[in-house]
């Protein structure tokens, strides 16, 4: 019991110094994605400008092993057909117009690499929150280690087996366990074994009692994805640790207002 309590304190201390402060953290979902096309460099730069505490982005593996920022498994969102991202070569991924669907003025935006996205966040002194959609643990670890960023990033995923591999192969990298499901006993036991630094749970599932349960177990808690002012303020009242939102500037304003 003493050992686990000590681990919880260490986790909280680490997050407090690296991207999850003692106040509620504002996480820009896919960058500043309400104002700009998601998972692009312009969205990341805007999230830096509005001083998001962390910047979340989604990553998929393309043919040949490259890691690029895409949320969806196909290109339908961009009105470019139903071709799968996994079928793209690196050259093809780098040529995809990922901005015009949001607004024609962003036609020059191309899918960033994982390396480019991490570097932009770190240059802006903001923690990158890397959501793994596809790709092996070794590929993510390789990019992170190339940048000497092991202690400067958080890797999160709905795939807890992937997180287990990250933990085993690179224990210095912080991990976040995502879920949109009810917390049953099987999931609770898996969390206790995995011991992620934090958990990200769906807003419709998360309530004040569940937040307290996570926090008492030593996990910091983020809620995804909340954009309505009243809902954001509700989670603030419940003393959530972090809010994932498409509107980071507004969420920060609500947090910092008297």
Essential attributes:
258 residues; alpha/beta; TIM Barrel; 8-stranded parallel β-barrel; 10 helices; 9 strands; globular; disordered N terminus
Instruction: Please give the largest β-sheet.
Output: 8 strands, parallel, barrel
Can you say what the CATH homologous superfamily is? Phosphatidylinositol (PI) phosphodiesterase
- The CATH class designation is Alpha Beta
Summed up, the helix count is 10
Listing every helix as H and every strand as E from the N terminus to the C terminus, the arrangement reads HEHEEHHEHEHEHEHEHEH
Catalogue the unreliable spans: 1-21
* Strand element count: 9
**Corresponding CATH architecture:** Alpha-Beta Barrel
Strand content: 15-25%
The total domain count is: 1
> How many angstroms separate the termini?
39 Å
Q: Could you provide a short overview of the structure?
A:
The protein has a single domain (2-36, 43-54, 115-256), classed as Alpha-Beta Barrel (TIM Barrel), CATH 3.20.20.190. It has ten helices and nine strands. It has helices at residues 2-17, 41-49, 90-93, 114-123, 137-146, 160-169, 185-194, 208-216, 229-237, 248-256, and strands at 25-28, 54-61, 67-69, 127-132, 154-157, 174-179, 198-202, 220-224, 242-245.
